[in-house]
Write a structure and sequence with these properties.
By secondary structure, this protein is an alpha/beta fold. The chain has 18 helices and 18 strands. The chain binds alpha-D-glucopyranuronic acid.
Length: 678
């Protein structure tokens, strides 16, 4: 299957002050320290410069090139920049680099090979985005220690919640390692991703066998390709593997037999695949097996695996997405939103150091708007990873444009008040709050084997943006968007302004024309695309809006489920009080009459009508502006994007009309502005 290079397309020359002068790479790294990552850094620089400047950079290795020495010295003598020096320099933090201009060249300095690779990609970014390289001096250290992608790929080639084709890791229960794997690794590494989980968290069928002889040679091959770009490979694990592989009749984490089985299994797997980073586990969640079956806690389960993986430096990433998915909709007290906190907060301090809890950004499930998960701010002695979803399961499935980086940024900036300072989600998951190293961010990936990787061309901004944000969260969402636009479409001010407008309006637009004021859901059950207001209302999933003729919303205050009180003060009091709760989350926390005056000065019902009309108008404006780029953009990409937008428009109108009609019929209150409501 054919594929494009996304933002790593090096065809077509660019203007970059200084780049034209560079003619060679000076590798000042001893041969024994030249691992695959260093070699790939050199290769990447050579390919990029060849395409972007037309110069084939030769490689000069100190001490090796002998006779050429004179030629290189002569080349250096003239004015201008001649070379790129790659230097390993002890003393810098892991994965960091310094990229700077000297009299006759550019230097990339780092204390490890990943730092060199990230510096090389940064230099390429400077060249491709047309920044002058005559005056560089940048020192960068990734803020998140773990910057992961979680692929929900199944071994039959399908992808759970995949919106861009089939898997490029698996096909017909085999593992694929080919050109595409290489390009994937380059794309991921170019934005600083350093860990990848290759298979779906729901581990079933053949995937249970990934830790057996049947697959390990190929697993190793894949892990080596990724390692060549500084990426540690992880696999999702079936908690009940000893049972499902037919070797034991229990998976009780306190049974000596089971513990011994895992020790032997881990030894076997890590011996075969020494690059492996460890495992991701979804246990006791949505039908997956876990320690609850044996009356044990999640700490018992995670620690059993962690103990077995520890001798090989393996990590156990344990998901906190544990809730009762057999709820009765008549029950107003059981609250799915509480479950992550209720299941894990009491275990704080009980996990081994190589266990990391992976916590979704919100307490429900990647809705367009949710409060921040209360476990952030509820755990003090536990390693934590923030899980976000760039696969747009509930945000338009990569058929709608929804640039999620502004949302992620809001989440990172949220103050948890777990301490007086350094208490934001970013502080916690970067390790600053509690001096942790096993922490960071993970995104459920949005890639597949579509020619453009992400289905919607513009969804690639989320893939690019996630990596950049995890590396440098101080970048603004606009800065990241601009970078991605330049890297992907070149430097043209009309393209830049138009696409920037579209990206930055897209999350607000999507929020406006779908479910209002933080209530979420209202989507078609199972496949989660398009409106269905009552789709989840009388089901077992714990996902209700509780709308009646008077009002709507879930009472999660102290009078309701008490969820609001799981936050630290002052957040708890703010969320608990309907007068102080932010409008955008009001219906998440409270059941509110349609006539209630929001802080914005509008009633709830009028807000619903207005936002739904506005959301669609925003889509119309995006389309109108985008159409003006017809003569400026690559024809194929232009056509693909227009097609997606036509579907988005139609679907957004459907959302608007169904939501408005539903609430008009429920409330009997007319739109003040007298617009069409059906
Ligand atoms: C959602 C999603 C599932 C997924 C689950 C998870 O419920 O719809 O497909 O398996 O999240 O995060 O584990």
């Amino acid at each position: 299957m054919k594929f494009e290079q996304a933002w790593l397309d090096y065809t077509g020359k660019v203007f970059c002050d200084g780049a034209d002068e560079i003619s060679y790479i000076h590798l000042e790294i001893q041969e024994k320290e030249q691992d695959e990552v260093i070699k790939n850094s050199v290769k990447e620089l050579q390919n990029a410069f060849a395409g972007l400047t037309g110069h084939k950079l030769t490689l000069h290795e100190e001490g090796l090139s002998g006779g050429d020495e004179a030629a290189y010295t002569a080349a250096d003598a003239g004015a201008g920049l001649h070379k790129i020096r790659l230097v390993l320099q002890k003393g810098m933090p892991a994965e960091s680099y310094r990229l700077y201009t000297e009299e006759n060249g550019i230097t990339i300095e780092a204390s490890d090979s990943r730092g060199i690779l990230y510096g090389a990609f940064d230099l390429i970014r400077q060249v491709k985005t047309g920044n002058s390289i005559k005056d560089l001096d940048r020192t960068k250290s990734p803020v998140m220690p773990m910057r992961m992608l979680n692929h929900w790929d199944n071994m039959d080639g399908s992808i759970e919640r995949g919106y861009s084709g089939e898997s490029f890791f698996f096909e017909n229960n085999t593992i694929l390692v080919n050109d595409r794997t290489d390009t994937y690794a380059r794309l991921a590494a170019s934005v600083g991703i350093n860990a990848v989980v290759i298979n779906n968290v729901n581990v079933k069928d053949a995937a249970t066998w990934l830790i057996t002889e049947r697959y390990l040679d190929k697993v190793k091959e894949l892990s080596d390709v990724l390692a060549g770009y500084g990426i540690q490979m992880y696999m999702s694990l079936n908690y009940a593997a000893p049972v499902e592989l037919g070797e034991l009749d229990s998976a009780d984490p306190l049974s000596e037999d089971v513990r011994g089985w895992w020790k032997r299994r881990m030894e076997f797997v890590f011996r075969k695949v020494p690059n492996l980073g460890g495992f991701l586990i979804k246990a006791d969640s949505e039908g997956r097996p876990g320690p609850f079956t044996y009356g044990r806690t999640h700490a018992d389960g995670a620690n059993m695996l962690a103990e077995a993986a520890a001798p090989y430096g393996g990590n156990i990433i344990w998901r906190c997405f544990v809730y009762n998915c057999q709820q009765d909709w008549r029950d107003y007290k059981t609250d799915r939103a509480r479950s992550g906190y209720d299941n894990f907060q009491g275990l704080d301090g009980k996990f081994l150091d190589n266990v990391v809890l992976q916590i979704k950004n919100g307490p429900m499930d990647f809705q367009v708007r949710e409060p921040v998960h209360p476990l952030f701010g509820g755990l003090k002695q536990t390693n934590q990873i923030l899980e976000v979803q760039i696969a747009q399961e509930y945000t338009g499935q990569q058929r709608h444009l929804c640039y999620l980086i502004p949302m992620f940024q809001e989440i990172l900036k949220f103050r948890t008040y777990i301490k007086e300072e350094n208490d934001t989600v970013e502080d916690i998951v970067s390790g600053r709050t509690f001096r942790q190293h096993n922490c960071g961010m993970a995104a459920v990936a949005n890639t597949g084997n579509d020619v453009n990787w992400t289905g919607h061309d513009m969804a690639a901004a989320n893939l690019y943006g996630f990596g950049r944000l995890a590396f440098e969260p101080e970048l603004s969402a606009e800065e990241i968007a601009r970078e991605w636009i330049f890297m992907t479409f070149g430097k043209d001010s009309q393209i830049e302004e138009t696409l920037l407008f579209m990206l930055m309006s897209s999350w607000p637009a999507y929020e406006k024309y779908t479910s209002p004021l933080g209530i979420g859901w209202m989507v078609n059950p199972n496949y989660h695309y398009g409106p269905s207001v009552d789709g989840y209302e009388y089901s077992r999933w714990g996902t209700y809006h509780r709308a009646d003729h008077m009002g709507i919303g879930v009472d999660r205050s102290h009078e309701g489920t008490g969820y609001a009180l799981l936050y630290n003060e002052p957040n708890a009091s703010v969320y608990d009080d309907k007068r102080r709760c932010p409008d955008e989350l009001l219906l998440f926390f409270h059941h509110i009459p349609y006539t209630w005056m929001l802080r914005s000065g509008k009633t709830v019902i009028q807000h619903i009508y207005d936002t739904h009309f506005e959301g669609v108008e925003m889509v119309d404006e995006m389309i109108e502006r985008f159409m003006k780029l017809q003569d400026k953009m690559d024809k194929v990409k232009y056509r693909r994007i227009v097609e997606r937008f036509m579907e988005q428009k139609e679907n957004a109108e459907e959302w608007r009309d169904q939501i408005n009609a539903y609430f008009y019929r429920k409330s009997g209150i007319s739109d003040e502005k007298g617009r069409d409501i059906y």
